[in-house]
Write a structure and sequence with these properties.
Layout (H helix, E strand, L loop, with lengths): L5 E5 L2 H10 L6 E5 L12 E7 L1 H6 L4 H15 E11 L3 H8 L6 E14 L2 E14 L3 H38 L1
Parallel strand pairs: 1-2, 3-4
Antiparallel strand pairs: 4-6, 5-6
Helix pairs in contact: 3-5
């Protein structure tokens, strides 16, 4: 497989500027300031989408499950049928797989663990990453059209309930401090 063009995105203009400077001699690499949950590319434009821990970053933010669902929805939209989403994550399969298997998506899925033992200050430590290889299936676009609005609405409602619960807990702990 030969990569002819590489389109790279980040939500941070600072990161994009750094990558442009670092890769100035690589004219086939294009960089865009863009939100992974609102991709500005055409439907079925790419053979491969690579996620280098974007899922991990999004899961640390507010409305995390909703935003991951939006990112994966957009990734599927811009993938050609038969194309691959390749994710690299710190998250173990029991914490990630369900995101790739939501009802608005249609991927075959393989995952693996990568481990590296490093020594730091005389202590051995095992570093772990996980890879997720998802191939977009024939029925993916139909499934996305059919199920996306329901999935999005459900996740919005769940996130709102969680925020309300957090407010109650915060109120409870604030009272306890007085």
């Amino acid at each position: 497989m030969c990569i002819r063009d590489s389109h790279n995105i980040d939500i941070s203009s600072i990161v994009i500027d750094q990558m442009l400077a670092r890769n100035a001699s690589r004219d086939k690499m294009k960089y865009y300031v863009m939100d992974a949950t609102k991709l500005e590319f055409a439907d079925k434009e790419f053979d491969v989408v690579i996620d280098k821990s974007t899922i991990d970053s999004i899961l640390c933010a507010e409305d995390s499950f909703l935003m991951v669902a939006r990112m994966l929805n957009e990734s599927s939209r811009v993938l050609k049928t038969g194309g691959y989403y390749f994710g690299i994550s710190y998250g173990a399969p029991e914490n990630r797989i369900f995101h790739y298997q939501r009802e608005h998506l249609s991927f075959s899925l393989e995952h693996s663990k990568i481990e590296k033992i490093v020594e730091e200050d005389g202590q051995q430590q095992t570093l772990r990453n996980y890879t997720y290889l998802c191939q977009k299936l024939e029925d993916a676009d139909e499934k996305m059209l059919k199920n996306w609005s329901t999935i999005e609405k459900t996740l919005i409602e769940e996130e709102a309930k969680e925020k309300e619960l957090n407010k109650k807990w915060n109120f409870f702990f604030e009272e306890d401090k007085e």
